[in-house]
Amino acid sequence: MLLELTCGVINLENKGTIYRISGPVVTATNIDAKMNELVRVGKEGLFGEVIEIDYDKTIIQVYEDTSLLKPGDEVTTTGMPLSVDLGPGLLGSIYDGVQRPLPKLSVLMGEFIKRGAEAPGIDREKKWKFFPLKKKGDIVNYGEAIGYVDENEHTKHFIMSPPNITGTIIEILEEGDYTVEEVLCKLDNGAVIKMYQRWPVKVPRPFKDKMMPNVPLVTGKRIIDVLFPLAKGGTAAIPGPFGSGKTVTQQQLAKWSDTKVVVYIGCGERGNEMIDVLTEFPKLVDPVTGGPLMNRTVLIANTSNMPVAAREASIYTGITIAEYYRDMGYDVALMADSTSRWAEAMREISSRLEEMPGEEGYPAYLSSRLSSFYERAGIVVTLGGKIGSVTVIGAVSPPGGDFSEPVVQNTLRITKTFWALDSNLSQKRHFPSINWLESYSLYYDSLKEWFESKISVDWDRTRAEAMEILQKEAELQEIVQLVGADALPPDQQFLLEISRMIREIFLQQDSYHEVDEFHSLKRQFSLLNAIIRFSRLGNNAIENGVEIDKIIKLESKAEISKVRYRKDFESKIGSINETMSKEFKALLGEE
Amino acid sequence: MKEYKTITSVTGPLIFLENTENIGYGEYVKINLSDGSVKRGQVLDTSGSRVVVQVFEGTRNIDKNAYVKFSGDVLKIPVAYDMLGRVFSGSGDPLDGGPKVIPEARLDINGLPINPYKRAPPHEFIQTGVSAIDGMNSLIRGQKLPIFSGSGLPHNQLALQIARQATVLDCTESFAVIFVAMGITEEEAKYFISDFEKTGALERGIVFLNLASDPSIERLIVPRIALTTAEFFAFNYDMHMLVIMTDMTNYCEALREIGSAREEVPGRRGYPGYMYTDLASIYERAGRIEGKNGSVTQVPILTMPGDDITHPIPDLSGYITEGQIIVSRDLERKGVYPPIDVLPSLSRLMSKGIGKDRTREDHKSVSDQLYAAYAEGKDLRGIVSIVGKESLSKSDKLFLDFADNFERNFVAQKSNENRGIQTTLDIGWEILSKLPEDKLLRVSDELIEKYMRRFMNAPNKTD
């Protein structure tokens, strides 16, 4: 099975023996292996990858538990690097770090994960209905679709020629049900195309051209979409200490992002969290298609107690699957929770190799590995001529919440959006607990035009005003700490009142409330706009001598705070704006 | 079984052998000393003709003439139902003078990771009878919820109270406690055991003891032995196991000791870089499995060195466990028992196990409101210390009083007081009723009518 490659060069099998075992690192001798080649180790044929070649010694990281392997046991090369199966059936699946389907493993080995099991990433038996898009005599370019299958009712899965195959069709099957193993299409140069292809995970899938990200990824979260937006094809980092809500934020983004496909990687995290996703997602509704959310999701679960080398591989497995759907012309969001665990896996392997450590024991190549991972994000013109994107959102778990540690710092140098989670906010049950003063988005300037043309011409002005109020509040708070709020002049007291509204009504969002957990961009804007309008009218009233207490007690202010929960948001916000105008008119009339 | 007499060097807890032949990684080893005693160990590194073994009982008295026997298998322990009510050493030998365990099975102490796909989502509320836990940071079956404490704080007392009182509402399934001591003093161990005996908890419990005077390397295996036993009871006998482990800090110290003896590249503060993975291999053994009735719930206790929560031990633990209960020195000084600081405490699984049909419909709202109000009250304490109480508004003063009220009436309780969840929630409403109603934004009007109104006309008992 392993030799059935549709890409890469095939080597003949080659055997050697184990020389040394130290944790997940195994040294073999008398073997002629290539760097990054996949090898099978020991009697059970455990999967491993060549990570170093040193004279006659070949060093292998093994993706499974190495207990009771012995020096002298056999090591066999496979002739190919660690690869994943790409084809219909990925959506809705849950895999371990090296793309073995976990449901299949539980059938093979029961409730616990034992080792040595082999399970292909894609079901070889299942039949899919194939619809050809090409006919005999047509030319197939690299990465071009020859047909499609309906992977589920909302997703057309295009069957593409692998990125290294091109030619003229001499034979193509008609519409009908086939397994992924059947040859769908033969080319004049002898190459064949099947429903699935294999791709080495550490090699980025090629594309024609990368474009500038200028369309926002809508997440329905007000603080993200309005203040710190992420572009489709962009990168974002979510660092935060434990208990600050990283995983909740990641899961919320996985639920609400307006992308066709979501790849969720649980990398070295809790098992109970993965089961959460697994039990919840099939019940939830995909905001884009209306189908079950699980139908657009690929889950990769390598919990913290699963083998560490497979944890290192899980990130690559995930991004390769994401790139594959991108190549079909889809928008894909990838959540990696958490990249710190991935970096730690690298550190662990590196220290077993006795490499010279860099900062805090991390290997010196930490930075380059992180950047080459994030660089696989992007909005591109695919080889097949479509436009697709991979957006990468990486959680970072800095020790002690210290953002100056190497993983956060190296991540921040590459990612363009930074959502800083703050445990002070989460302790106050302010969610999402994204700190509005520390976070930033470098995409905002290129997205501004989109927001202004699609949502409202006032988008930028309103946002800027809100940001300014929050910034001023932070400055004023220092004074309030010293002299108390009552000592401030009325306009500053009013500013504190407005900023409180922005924080509590706009930035806070209840992810357990059916209406509040997702707001469309239009709703987000009109909510913020109502608050800012209240601020402008209020300031005007104060200048004209109206007492602040009267403004704070206005009916429209109380109503703004409740409108976010209402199903009839649009009509309600209209009436609130009317009430507001009337109330302020009345106030000024009194004077 | 292979036997060698080729020890070349002994350093710290490690011995090095040469001229060996194909010894398996992780093999269980017995070392026969010239004085007739036997020590046990495990292979840490093996290559062509050289093997590194870590010795659980310490390397004292080992010389180059010792015989080293390789078992050809990993360390497995005997487990049996009869272990209930017994006391064992850190290596699993009986300490209570009773007979050896007649094994029903022999299990690998490292266990196996649960397939995430086969995990069952935890959702059953465990009532500990402690308001600060039940009301604010509920413990759920299958959860791992550590107690982060400091030296000299009453975490042991709290752990005992939990062990004694823990029950699941409307449930008659069998339940047992496993108590694991790692490097605690004899005095502390006696305190635990006598309390277990007094309250009868030992009859439905198992104790594993590694005392401060026992070899530190043994600390690396005792939690694994205990969890293997817990899994055996949970998944073979459908029992609900609560595993209390104290003190994880001593475990991590032992891990560091091994790391430095092996001359590994140290990570933060000298702890090995793989400490996260290692701790995960312990904590992640909590959980429930689809199709099985039993569960393993963990309450590890760790003392934060210097009360520093960013120290690697609490830090890495917090990233793996599903929340944490923080024992605070400030509250202890104020004479509040249990001194649980609810603000930085957290139970990640709480929302799964509370609410209608589980505890009570108002549980989440009350706890959110208590959190928000207590946080506000504590913030005000900071301001009061600068500007004085006089400059506060009337409503601020009420919040300030609320914070004291919360600590004295909600958090504080007697160490033998088993408060039901209904009582806990009612106390919550009662103290909330002293706040202005329009400031209670986290609770709906219906809940206020149903649960709080009756306290509002009642005489002010809490003052």
From TrEMBL, chain A:
A Pfam family recorded for this sequence: ATP-synt_ab_Xtn
Entry function: Component of the A-type ATP synthase that produces ATP from ADP in the presence of a proton gradient across the membrane. The A chain is the catalytic subunit.
Binding site for ATP: G240, P241, F242, G243, S244, G245, K246, T247
Main location: membrane
EC number(s) from the headed UniProt entry: 7.1.2.2
Top EC group: translocase
Membrane topology of the entry: Peripheral membrane protein
Assembly and binders: Has multiple subunits with at least A(3), B(3), C, D, E, F, H, I and proteolipid K(x).
Subcellular location: Cell membrane
Name of the protein: A-type ATP synthase subunit A
Sorted UniProt keywords: ATP synthesis, ATP-binding, Cell membrane, Hydrogen ion transport, Hydrolase, Ion transport, Membrane, Nucleotide-binding, Translocase, Transport
Catalytic activity annotation: ATP + H2O + 4 H(+)(in) = ADP + phosphate + 5 H(+)(out)
Gene Ontology annotations for the cellular component aspect, listed alphabetically: plasma membrane
Top-rank lineage group of the source organism: Archaea
GO BP terms, alphabetized: proton motive force-driven plasma membrane ATP synthesis
Stretches assigned to the AAA+ ATPase domain: 232-418
GO molecular function: ATP binding; hydrolase activity; proton-transporting ATP synthase activity, rotational mechanism; proton-transporting ATPase activity, rotational mechanism
Protein family: Belongs to the ATPase alpha/beta chains family.
UniProtKB/TrEMBL annotation, chain B:
A Pfam family: ATP-synt_ab
GO terms of biological process kind: proton motive force-driven plasma membrane ATP synthesis
Domain ATP synthase A/B type C-terminal: 352-451
Natural source organism: Candidatus Methanofastidiosum methylothiophilum
Keyword Cell membrane: yes
GO terms for MF: ATP binding; proton-transporting ATP synthase activity, rotational mechanism
Function: Component of the A-type ATP synthase that produces ATP from ADP in the presence of a proton gradient across the membrane. The B chain is a regulatory subunit.
GO cellular component: plasma membrane
Subunit-level organization: Has multiple subunits with at least A(3), B(3), C, D, E, F, H, I and proteolipid K(x).
Keywords: ATP synthesis, Cell membrane, Hydrogen ion transport, Ion transport, Membrane, Transport
Residue intervals of the ATPase F1/V1/A1 complex alpha/beta subunit N-terminal domain: 7-72
InterPro entries with a match to the protein in the record: ATP-synt_VA_C, ATPase_a/bsu_AS, ATPase_F1/V1/A1_a/bsu_N, ATPase_F1/V1/A1_a/bsu_N_sf, ATPase_F1/V1/A1_a/bsu_nucl-bd, P-loop_NTPase, V-ATPase_su_B/beta
Domain of life, per lineage: Archaea
Stated family: Belongs to the ATPase alpha/beta chains family.
Subcellular location: Cell membrane
Sequence ranges assigned to domain ATPase F1/V1/A1 complex alpha/beta subunit nucleotide-binding in this UniProt record: 129-347
Membrane topology category: Peripheral membrane protein
Protein name from the UniProt record: A-type ATP synthase subunit B
